[in-house]
Structure to design on (776 residues):
């Protein structure tokens, strides 16, 4: 018999599986080309040419010694390049000692949580949220505490105030946000940070800020993603190349730590140790070498922007209400009729697959993922337009 | 402040770090070429040519769609090839549904333990043991229970009998064994399996057998590694290409499940779910594609066999007592004077770095790792010979 918790967690999340299965069933019945799937956050984009050029280059380096274990933190030269990049782009001034390569952002987040959490420690998560966070926190004996953002999906300090207490060990931010596309602005972040500093004093505790930023480059209208990691000492920056290089299957990212964090060396030692003991051991060696050479490369954001504009215009014109997303490849409109589960079912009848807001802890909405082809998007929009 | 457990675990394992630091210090003082390091299990061998050929081939496949997320279990075609390989080599008859690609063996073991363990469940580990196991078990709320093997490092049922009880959820095997080089023979394994079946009945519980076999191909004198996974229904086979293709940095392996396991589908769903929630998400995509084409390829085992024979002959001639290893790239001799910590210090004075048996829960021994160059080995042997 497997773990009771895992069995329960699978059971609880089985509605998502059922949804996917229903989608697959639909595709079988009607043909995949007649089902319009906007439910998946799995980019169909291919990695840029430079990625393949580097693969070829590395295929000729047979004596590099670079497929062995390296330091659990990752290759030092790659970490140094990241430090320069973070500095040049005014994200963070730090040193390579404070950078730990990770198996994507999912790996990085698990490593951080394993490092900082003791049983019963609480982690505040702003909703709507990327639903994997709840599992990540619970993996490491933590308790997830939800704090709702406001109607525009912006940080709401009052709601956090209600949830913060002396057991609060961390708060997780995800900006640009999955599922809302929201980017928190500098003013709001400063407000949050003042609040956190105040609470750290009050509780005489470290309250870590974990900023998960895999969509950092996927932003629109020249919007700036404020570098929250450099604004608050006790903060972690978590990055992944899954979106910016369209290589999510290859699992590569990193953690950068604010060098002014309390007991920073102990924390970083913890990250390195936990990278090892969680079985990651180190981030995939070949991918480390590749991303180290591609720090200035990203996929064409215009590709997503066109899709975003198309859907936003079509659906608002049809009568849908939604916040115009500032980043990511998601839209999070209000569900007509306000019952998101029912609405998702209605969409399914029209052979359009979307995810109900309930999956992100915000009912009355649904998530559209537009990292897919235009034909799917056009057909889906046409059908969704009929459902308002 | 980081987790109390992690802080404590780092503290407890800091003697290993101190040892490495002392080694690095020695190298700084005397020059790396004058320090003979037999402490690391990090092969200096490069991957075979076929590995690089495949990298080159894949660098030309720019529209493969294979750098995206795939099923959390891994690419189906790769898993099917593994199933054929396991069948052809009489390791296990199973189906691709029962194979989950992993981030090396370390990743696979964590995924299994997360799947099966509830808080307080016990896992029996045979000593001497690969010391990472204790962290893997504790990551997932389990309790490590040690059972000593006998003087020849063979399975000792009586010792297991003393430790098994109704809380026992699993037993971990590692054959060929790190650090001893022992391969358990079929007779002994059958004895163990009869015993486990008996205990399952008695406690009316599943007791899983987790067989960690990253050294499966690194064996000598045509010895056969019995396929224990096919001999016991409730068993997991954990594999990694770290040793057989000399690519430990690239983190690729898999879990194969005996199809007759109780509630096998629930267990496999658990493995897939835990691969996802632990942040692995999936095994690195590019490496999956590569190993799928290299199932019949291994590094030259003769390379290790020569080194093993050289050291074994030199040291036994000098008066060291040791079991002749049947596999891996380790030797585990008795420490002259019986105090392994003292002996390791004496070796360090001779500028030879080795690991004390205490690190593997068997005092009075030391581990030699010979996945290094001949010059290091020759010099180390010459110096060790003086210390008997």
């Amino acid at each position: 018999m497997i773990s009771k918790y895992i069995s329960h967690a699978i059971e609880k999340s089985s509605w998502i599986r059922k949804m996917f299965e229903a989608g697959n069933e639909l595709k079988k019945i009607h043909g995949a080309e007649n089902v319009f799937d906007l439910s998946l956050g799995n980019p169909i984009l291919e990695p840029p040419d430079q990625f393949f050029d580097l693969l070829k280059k590395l295929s000729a380096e047979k004596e590099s010694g670079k497929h062995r274990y390296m330091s659990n933190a990752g290759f030092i030269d790659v970490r140094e390049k990241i430090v320069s990049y973070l500095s040049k782009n005014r994200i963070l001034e730090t040193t390579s000692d404070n950078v730990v390569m990770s198996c994507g952002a999912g790996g990085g987040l698990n490593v951080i949580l394993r490092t900082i959490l003791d049983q019963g420690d609480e982690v505040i998560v702003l909703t709507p949220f990327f639903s994997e966070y709840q599992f990540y926190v619970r993996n490491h004996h933590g308790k997830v505490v939800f704090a709702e953002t406001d109607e525009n999906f912006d940080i709401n300090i009052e709601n956090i105030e209600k949830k913060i207490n002396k057991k609060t060990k961390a708060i997780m931010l995800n900006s640009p946000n999955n599922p809302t596309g929201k980017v928190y602005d500098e003013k709001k972040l400063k407000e949050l940070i003042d609040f956190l500093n105040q609470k750290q004093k009050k509780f005489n505790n470290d309250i870590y800020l974990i900023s998960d930023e895999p969509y950092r480059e996927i932003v629109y209208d020249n919007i700036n993603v404020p570098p929250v990691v450099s604004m608050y000492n006790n903060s972690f920056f978590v990055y992944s190349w899954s979106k910016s290089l369209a290589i999510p299957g290859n699992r590569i990212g990193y953690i950068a730590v604010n060098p002014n964090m309390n007991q920073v060396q102990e924390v970083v030692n913890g990250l390195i140790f936990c990278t090892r003991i969680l079985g990651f051991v180190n981030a995939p060696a070949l991918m480390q070498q590749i991303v180290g050479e591609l720090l200035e490369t990203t996929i064409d954001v215009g590709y997503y922007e066109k899709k975003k504009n198309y859907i936003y215009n079509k659906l608002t014109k049809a009568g849908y209400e939604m916040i115009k997303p500032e980043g990511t490849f998601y839209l999070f409109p209000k569900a007509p009729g306000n019952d998101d589960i029912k609405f998702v079912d209605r969409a399914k009848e029209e052979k359009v697959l979307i995810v109900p807001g309930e999956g992100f802890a915000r009912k009355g909405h649904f998530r559209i993922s537009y990292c897919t082809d235009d034909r799917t998007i056009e057909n889906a929009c046409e059908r969704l337009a009929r459902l308002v």
In short: Chain B has a mean pLDDT of 96.
